[in-house]
Design a protein that fits this description.
This protein has 171 residues and is mainly alpha-helical. A three-stranded antiparallel beta sheet has the order 1-3-2. It starts with 15 loop residues before the first helix and ends with a helix.
Length: 171
């Protein structure tokens, strides 16, 4: 056979590692690229999972966000309730909730004008939940935050009871 038929085209040098290192926007899912490397979609998926893992750890790399995660492990709380628990301004709490929500660590539920936050699907993974639970309960702020969550929930129950006792007499 002629020597030229033994030389692989440069496109066949596309390796799985180069797929992982290049930005996702560079990955074209065209049939031509998939013919070069049939498992390209696997590597793109792997890169997306790696990006999600980085987002997850970036979201957890902040003391305020870890305190939010710890508070939400015991109850669903509104932003105003989180402000009371953490003793921080509403703008600070809201700014820290966004990366947690983007990473899937918290989820939201709207009720009237209030937005309630709860543990996200990612925290449903038993290994991660156990690790965070074990590590966060040893933090100096953990007992204070846990007591503040109980206080906020007691206040919520009292407000609800008082409302229904007031309204019940009218009907």
């Amino acid at each position: 056979p002629p020597l030229s038929s033994l030389v692989l085209p440069v496109s066949h040098l596309l390796s799985p590692i180069s797929c992982l290192l290049s930005p996702l926007s560079d990955l074209s899912f065209s049939p031509r690229l998939q013919s070069v490397h049939p498992d390209l979609s696997f590597y793109a998926e792997l890169r997306m999972k790696a990006a999600h893992t980085l987002d997850l750890f970036r979201a957890l790399a902040d003391e305020v966000r870890l305190r939010v995660v710890y508070a939400l492990q015991s109850a669903e709380l509104s932003v105003a309730e989180l402000v009371d628990v953490l003793g921080l301004p509403q703008s600070t709490v809201s700014r820290h909730l966004k990366p947690l929500r983007d990473a899937g660590l918290v989820e939201t539920r709207r009720e009237g004008t209030s937005v309630y936050y709860r543990r996200g699907a990612v925290l449903g993974e038993p290994d991660l939940a156990a690790l965070l639970g074990a590590r966060l309960q040893d933090w100096p702020q953990a007992r204070t935050d846990a007591a503040a969550v109980r206080k906020v929930l007691d206040h919520r129950r009292r407000r609800s009871r008082d409302f229904f006792e007031t309204v019940a007499g009218r009907y």
